[in-house]
Amino acid sequence: MNFADRVLEMQRKKDSIVILGVDPHLDGKEPGLPTGYTLERFCCEMVEACAASIIAIKPQLAFFEARGVEGMRAFAGILRLARKLELLTIADAKRGDIGPTSAAYATAFLGDGDFGCDAVTVNPYLGSDAIMPFVRLVPQGKGIFALVKTSNPSSGEFQDLATPQGPLWECVARRIHGIGSDFLGECGLSAIGAVIGATYPEHARRARELLPSNLILVPGYGAQGASAIDAVTAARGDGSGVIVNASRSILYAYRGKAGSNPPAAAAAAAEAMRIELNQVRAVS
After folding, report:
1. Half-sphere exposure (CA, 13 Å, Cβ side) for 203?
2. Whole-model pTM above 0.85?
3. Helix (H, G, I), strand (E, B) or coil at 240
4. 13, 14, 29, 94: which is the annotated catalytic residue?
5. CA nearest 59: which of 80, 28, 36?
6. Residue spans per domain, the chain
7. Would you identify the CATH topology of the domain 3-283?
8. N or C: fewer beta carbons within 10 Å in the chain?
9. 3-state SS string over 25-79?
10. Three-class DSSP category at 269
């Protein structure tokens, strides 16, 4: 089944557009884990607690790679659990390199191995030869989310550079739309999507104009400051076409709440996010 169709099917089943970003931070004074938890136990308990409210998980590879072998074992264990819970998995890897290297990345994150996921984030700014190895796996039901306009404060240093066709990021958006038009699902959306940060809602509106048939993955909700209204700005007229990620605001919802149970706090935060996003979509 086309990846976009799988997303829409899961969205209807759960009445949700929420993605849980699994980002177990290394914070210096804060180790990123509650007392008594191993990395894998913490992440797995968070995923299981939130499963009823979310459609997918998006583990950020950096936080697992930083912990070495233990981290990558935990990453594989989280993916196994997510599959048992029938959640979609998106590797937040942001990969993209010369052809042979990208082919290896594609095999790692979209293949059948320990780190294989349903979709992966990719960096298209190296050009089409960097993303085509990932694209070749889309007919097998896989998905891609290309970084187009990111949510970090300095993203405009390069992404907003002027070209004769408009800002650089708009040129990338047009290219992603063109590639994605060959991989439309029955739902009318493409399995090749884009990452558009919620912290720049004016860009999100423009992105939807440039990407009318692409799934848009929206980071920036919650801890990064974007509201629910900001997060669904890139939705299509019927409210479809966006999936919204939250990481710290869910994983660390227990912090600052004396005696709070980490999984219970995460579950409550994920459900509150689901409800809030649905309310906003209903009136948009």
Report:
1. 23
2. yes
3. coil
4. 94
5. 80
6. 3-283
7. TIM Barrel (3.20.20)
8. N
9. CCECCECCCCCCCCHHHHHHHHHHHHCCCCCEEEEEHHHHHCCHHHHHHHHHHHH
10. helix
